[in-house]
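Data card: per-record layout.
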Amino acid sequence: MTPPPDFQGPETNCRRCPRLYEFLEGHRVAHPDWHNAPVPSFGSLDASLLIVGLAPGLKGANLTGRPFTGDYAGDLLYATLLKMGLAKGHYDKRADDGLTLVNCRITNAVRCVPPQNKPIGAEIKACRPFLIDEMAAMPNLRVIVALGGLAHGEVLAARGERKSAWKFGHAACHALPGNVMLADSYHCSRYNTNTGRLTVEMFDDVFQQVRALLTT
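The structure for this 216-residue chain is written out next.
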């Protein structure tokens, strides 16, 4: 097999998105001890499962430097991964808590924190090449979990597929070309869980499906 291409995420001082760069610059001044840079993916490129979120949270991954670490979304995501055997150790909302992923990798469609957690179209598009390269660098990739409709759309765009051909729906599974399954879930945000749009049981159901897909 041809070795996978090396994957390089965005540089620490990435300027592809002027609005995001300016936003991070302000936080570097206000909070010099925070990560305040593009957040690198977490987990091995050899993993069979890739989880794709929207963007780093301001006081979560942008502070800690690890995806979904330090905010409520991470509390639910990592508890679920530990429950499903896709992580081991102890999650303590810190990048140095010793938690490791098992056959799993986590990334975001947009690598820098956006104001009000809302990236604009140009920023999403500017980050897309990193997702394309990341998936190409995962030789064992079999399942992708998209957390939310935006992540679902970006996974499809990165794989050269039309969004209209693969409709987003919670717990929906799509057999994409290239022998990869795309599994959808509502985003594990506090808003979705507080409103009842997403329950712990609903989130568990998605990852039970994922675990079954990984073992077939």
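Known properties of this structure: The chain has seven helices and eight strands. The chain has one domain: 18-215.

See the next section for split statistics.
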